[in-house]
């Protein structure tokens, strides 16, 4: 049994020793992740886990990777991607240059999905996709663009459901149970570590996607991150969140208008 | 807080149960069902046709209010936070399921302790039993659908044989049990 006070101590260590601030993460989920890691790595008690984190910077890497959630997929919620295709890209396409930010991109499946949409809209050449996450190790996977082949059947179905008309296999080469996505896609992706909790705005974008990341933050942190997005979006830029996330009741809601049933907002002032 | 968890065969139980429930239950009712992972939200619309209790599919950080029915959304685990609100989590599936019944049951027992009552319905999966056990341990009360009346016996039967259940109820008894809760 892990007590809330134990978690507070651990979070305090992480901040003081390593500068990682998880204190404003949703507590119920964070606690579950910590308890899960404790049993996964067979620590006899929470005290041993805390000691390991404090004393072993290599283990810290694993700790951060495991307590953050890195579950993602290509073309998750196909109707969302369909709306990007039909409603958003034609408007972005009128710009001379398109900058897109995937904030908290994890292993990059959504970034590659976006690159495919841009390619099919003939916009990839004038686009740049910024992929950021706080975990350096997941970003390494984004750079490689290699995903497990056993997921591809489902991704391919979602791709079709999103309005894709090509044979999905034209986008990757299959080898040893892995699918390596084309370099044409990955060379448009700019990768950098960025911590939404502590880092500031670094560019101005036409579209920011941050799906199923805010659910792991408490209300105050959500508000802070939304302000960061607001500061990083040009006027008439778009912000896309996960299907169960919202701008409602946030500090920036009055500057945005929701487009349709999908969780996409347009910055109107 | 009243929790109901179900898998295959539990939807028709809810269709019979919900109309028998008082519309002004003095506690929140949270339903976790295994369902397809599509973003299809019509299940809450469907359930709301069976009850006068205000029904809502949970969005992230929704506050928890009494006399409301909350449905866990497809493809997310539903968690309960200290200050009376929900949070969502899209981490790995548990028992091949997201939402997982265990996850919500355990989370509720941690926050509401003995103030939790949970009922496990029909299903073909082990999900729910661990959650019921933690509710029992925290002093809450647990029940399972009588396997004789369940379309899929496995899930309630698994809970019963693992000593996770205080009461075994058919649908009529379930309604009476819920309506007398405070």
Written overview of the protein:
The complex is a heterodimer of chains A (269) and B (182). Chain A has two domains: 64 residues, no CATH class; 153 residues, Vaccinia Virus protein VP39 (Rossmann fold, 3-Layer(aba) Sandwich). In chain A, the strands form two sheets. In chain A, strands 6-2-1-7-8-10-9 form a seven-stranded mixed β-sheet. Chain A has a three-stranded antiparallel β-sheet with strand order 3-5-4. The longest helix of chain A has 15 residues. Chain A has ten helices and ten strands. Chain A starts with a helix and ends with a strand. The model of chain A has no long low-confidence stretch (mean pLDDT 96). In chain A, helix 5 packs across helix 6. Chain A is globular. In chain A, 42% of the residues lie in helices and 19% in strands. Chain B has 182 residues and is α/β, with parallel strands linked by helices. Chain B has a single domain, classed as Rossmann fold. Helices cover 29% and strands 21% of the residues of chain B. Chain B is built from six helices and nine strands; from the N terminus they run βαβαββββαβαβαβα. In chain B, strands 3-4-2-1-7-8-9 form a seven-stranded parallel β-sheet, sandwiched between helices. Chain B has a two-stranded antiparallel sheet with strand order 5-6. The N and C termini of chain B lie close together (10 Å). At the A-B interface, helix 2 of A face strand 5, strand 6 and helix 3 of B.
């Amino acid at each position: 049994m892990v007590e809330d006070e134990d978690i507070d101590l651990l979070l305090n260590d992480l901040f003081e020793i390593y500068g990682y601030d998880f204190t404003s993460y949703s507590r119920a989920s964070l606690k579950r992740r910590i308890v899960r890691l404790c049993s996964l790595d067979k620590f006899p008690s929470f005290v041993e886990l805390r000691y390991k984190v404090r004393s072993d910077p290599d283990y810290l890497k694993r700790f951060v990777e495991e307590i953050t959630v890195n579950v993602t997929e290509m073309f998750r919620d196909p109707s969302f991607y369909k709306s990007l295709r039909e409603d958003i890209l034609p408007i972005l396409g009128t710009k001379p240059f398109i900058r897109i930010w995937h904030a908290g991109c994890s292993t990059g499946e959504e970034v590659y999905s976006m690159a495919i949409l841009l390619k099919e809209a003939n916009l990839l050449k004038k686009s740049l996709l910024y992929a950021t996450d706080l975990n350096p190790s997941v970003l390494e996977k984004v750079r490689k663009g290699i995903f497990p082949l056993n997921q591809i059947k489902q991704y391919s179905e979602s791709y079709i459901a999103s309005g894709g008309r090509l044979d999905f296999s034209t986008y990757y080469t299959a080898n040893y149970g892995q699918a390596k996505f084309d370099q044409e896609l990955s060379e448009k992706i700019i990768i950098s570590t960025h911590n939404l909790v502590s880092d500031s705005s670094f560019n101005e974008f036409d579209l920011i996607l941050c799906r199923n990341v805010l659910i792991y933050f408490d209300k105050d942190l959500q508000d802070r991150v939304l302000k960061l997005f607001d500061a990083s979006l040009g006027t008439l830029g778009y912000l896309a969140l996960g299907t169960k996330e919202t701008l409602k009741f946030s500090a920036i809601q009055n500057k945005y208008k929701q487009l349709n049933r999908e969780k996409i907002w347009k910055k109107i002032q | 807080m009243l929790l109901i968890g179900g898998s295959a065969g539990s939807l028709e139980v809810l269709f019979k149960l919900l109309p028998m429930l008082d519309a002004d239950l003095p506690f929140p009712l949270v339903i976790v069902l295994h369902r397809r992972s599509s973003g299809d939200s019509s299940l809450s619309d469907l359930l709301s046709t069976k009850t006068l209790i205000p029904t809502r599919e949970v969005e992230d950080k929704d506050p928890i209010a009494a006399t409301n029915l909350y449905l866990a959304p497809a493809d997310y685990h539903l968690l309960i936070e200290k200050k009376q609100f929900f949070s969502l989590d899209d981490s790995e599936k548990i028992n091949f399921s997201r939402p997982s019944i265990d996850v919500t049951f355990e989370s509720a027992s941690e926050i509401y302790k003995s103030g939790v009552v949970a009922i496990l319905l029909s299903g073909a999966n082990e999900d729910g039993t661990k959650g019921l056990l933690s509710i029992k341990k925290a002093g809450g009360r647990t029940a399972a659908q009588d396997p004789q009346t369940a379309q899929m016996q496995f899930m309630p039967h698994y809970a019963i044989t693992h000593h996770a259940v205080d009461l075994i109820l058919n649908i009529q008894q379930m309604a009476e049990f819920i309506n007398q809760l405070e």
